TrEMBL record:
Organism, scientific name: Pedobacter helvus
NCBIfam families, per database record: asp_kinases (TIGR00657)
PANTHER family: ASPARTATE KINASE, ASPARTOKINASE
Keywords: Amino-acid biosynthesis, ATP-binding, Kinase, Nucleotide-binding, Transferase
Pfam families associated with the record: AA_kinase (PF00696)
Domain Aspartate/glutamate/uridylate kinase: from-to ranges: 2-280
Recorded superkingdom: Bacteria
Entry GO MF terms: aspartate kinase activity
Protein name: Aspartokinase
SUPFAM superfamilies: ACT-like, Carbamate kinase-like
Amino acid sequence: MQVYKFGGASIKNIEGIKNVTQIIQSFGAKNLLVVVSAMDKTTDRLQELAFAHINGNETRHEILESIKDFHFEIISKLFTDTKNPIYNDVANTFVEIEWLLEEDAEDAPDYLYDQIVSIGELVSSKIIAAFLNQQGTFCVWQDARNYIQTDNNYREANVQWEKTTNEIQKHLPSYLEQGIVITQGFIGNTSENFTSTLGREGSDYSAAIFSAALDAEKMTIWKDVPGVLNADPKWFDETEKIPQLSYRDAIELTYYGATVIHPKTIKPIQNKGIPLYVRSFIHPAELGTEISSEATTPPVPSFIFKVNQVLLSISPKDFSFIIEENLSHIFAIFHQNKVKVNTMLNSAISFSVSIDNDELKIENLIKDLSADFKVKYNKDMELVTIRYYNQQTIDRVTENKKVWLEVKSRNTCQMVMKNL
Ligand code: ASP
Ligand code: MG
């Protein structure tokens, strides 16, 4: 069996939905599990709705109405028979949010967020399943919350692997024998039976969990790009598709900030040796990128940009060396403030790090560090990571820039820089 994952961009309108159903139908009539995200930017809109509710803002009713309108507009075009049960099914799903919005937002914000934001995937998967069935392709809609079991760390829930694997293996194979199974990405279920989410863009991860538990032959993520590119077209003119990547390189690239795949996706499929394909839903006949244990094609230099970086330089006030004791104290302060270090370098009496510019967090971080250290900082920096670098690629990205910090390992070069 195989697993397909479709993101929000692939199902943003009726043409998209029709295209996706064709890709599914060309696979065959059974032994395919399809994981879908919310349509288009629905999760962003639901997130606005959740924040409006949490802050007691009356705009929440308008936001909900516009989300409903968007979905019912699509439904009315796909299902001309207004007696089709999908109309009621989707309306009832939205009623659950309406009930929640009627009450004061007294529960924990992260809990409320997950109850609201999870609706996007429920609705999109119902629409796609109903549309496939209307077209005569038998498919079974399954609630991912019956399978993906998590703790109650809402908004970034941790998967309970054993329970999850058991549930998947117990029930899904018999459905897969009967037809196509459609389920949701991103959402899970806590042991108290509340809905949780796995973190933004988490649908790739859901697909990897299902793939691993079902020992899928392959997993495919369908995207609006031809595959994994060697740079984000947002920052780079000449990008090229990487035909093959090792799991190791894929994990390194996503760790450094390549957004093409969710970083948690690789581990479960690597552990089971399942190949992952990233392919274009616009050109479904093309091969895309294959991610597996070994790439046979030579590595392509890849570039990952992070803008809006702050470069901090931290030195002990008493001129003592930066040694293990100081470092563990510094890292404890970063950890307490939930600040992630993007790159770092130390000298005898100074320790430099590049971090995302999150004003709220940085203010507290600097305050805490300043008790024992002298802290200097520079804003508006860019961090570029080059995997499989050479002098030519370094020259290319540093043109008209001043490099403030450079860290090199055998395969990876990171530079923190600013416009000249
Ligand atoms: N719909 C969710 C999000 O936008 C999950 C996903 O798309 O992967 O974050
Ligand atoms: Mg998405």
